Amino acid sequence: MSSVLPMFKSWVPAWLIRITMFIVIVPGLLLFGLSTASAPGAAGYYGIEPADVQYSMIAFYAAVAGFFALERRFFVFTATREYFLICTVLQVATSYVCFHTQSLPVLFAFRFIQGMANCMSTSICITLIFGSLHNERAREIGYSVFYGLLLCITPLSTIITAPILDAWDFNVLYKFIIYAYMPGTVMLLIIMNNIRLSKKVPLYQLDFYSFFIYSCLLCSLGYILLYGEQYYWFQDQRIIWNALACVALMVLLIFRQLHLKRPYLNMAVFKSRNFNVGVFMIVALYIVRGALGMTSQYFASALGMDPRHIGYLMVANIGGIALSVLISSRLIILRRPMRLIWMYGFFLLLVFHVWMWFLFSTQVDSSTFIIPLIIQGMGQGMLMAPIIIFMISSVPPALAGSASAMGVFFRFTGFCGSIATVNYFQLKHKTIHINRFQDQLSGVDGIAGERLSAYAKAISAKGVAPESSAKIARGLLSRAIDTQAALRTMMDYYLFISIILVMIILVIALFPYLNRTRINLMSSQPSPVGI
User: Fold this and answer.
1) Closest Cα to residue 144, out of 400, 403, 384?
2) 406 vs 443, residue with greater confidence
3) Longest pairwise C-alpha distance within the chain
4) How far is CA 201 from the centre of its chain?
5) Are 163 and 308 in contact (CB under 8 A)?
6) Is the pLDDT of residue 404 over 90?
């Protein structure tokens, strides 16, 4: 590898380069998943709502999507080693600020800057990785492995952060990230030569206006989808103003791109019918992926698992992703019909959702969920890389950069849409089920009183005073109602996603045109993040 890739010194073996790249990439991926590690812990430390914790993650993602098209200009202007040092220093500095601050606006601002720096560092890593893959087969495998690693962010974050959160406050995670950057940074600086991968291009005609408009659009869109259900959508002025801002910014952005000689985002990618199909599939995949987060909530709330044991279960999910990455890359190499690969993936996700619908209960052995989690991981891994490869191959090589940028945008949209869907079920359907349970309990003669009496007697038998027993009994009944309402909500959500998956599978089966796209990756490179 070193002989064909002059970025590295001649004595460096290929295996050391790959290990170093992995060590460099992981801290950046963990930065994204940090907000999902423990939303209640983050909310408690910063004194904010759990939704605000999610918005800090959306700000990070919006920065990645918004800065992607502009980042390449800085990359070709600066020497690679210097560029890597700049983005690492930025990520360490912003993590240090997030470690010390308890101000919500400061947290949002520096999470956004973190996203920009993360886009820079990931761009360097994938340029080094894919620059060494000189045949199409190697690139297809590289795509599958790269996007498979991105799919592991959520379970990997849970596994790594659980022991830390058991012993320290949430902000210590940022200190952990700072130290996690050190080994990879030192190793990469030692094995790298200080050269450029491309010809230096001056920083002229940088389209900061499009970057600003696009980033504001993404932040407003994320705000609407995250807080919409909580604020009753257009009954709240904040949602109305953000919706108006979204429409205005979208019109302004499209108008500007259509009239620029060198557009920030080339809208010509939408002339490809297969690219539009890929957009539909990637948004659908990200909306469906939200079920894994609800599964983790079920483990914590209904089954009472701590984060560490949830992390142990998530190892099964990572195993499923790894297995399906091997299978999907092999199917792509063998030129199996893309339509068939997608049907395999969505069918596996359908099996997971239907299976989980039957498993939801307050008393289940944790080992019961190992196989479903493996199947869920296999479904994700079977879809992610093939969809991205399909999208980039469906446009001319000159538009591959814009196709990647638009791919990040639609992954961001699907991610936010998944949050909006989960919030709808958790906030609206759960309330409906709570009211229904309370009506049933009050409408059936004596059932509520009998349950309260049973609770009170059991508590009194433990030596608790009668007055306290009655209060505790009412609390236990309320908790039982809340737990059952949460279970019914999760079942409603999984049923809804299962119906969507059936519809997607039928659409794929009835769309034979998909097989006519020729996969060609030699002139394309993956977008910097696909979280």
Assistant:
1) 384
2) 406
3) 83
4) 33
5) yes
6) no
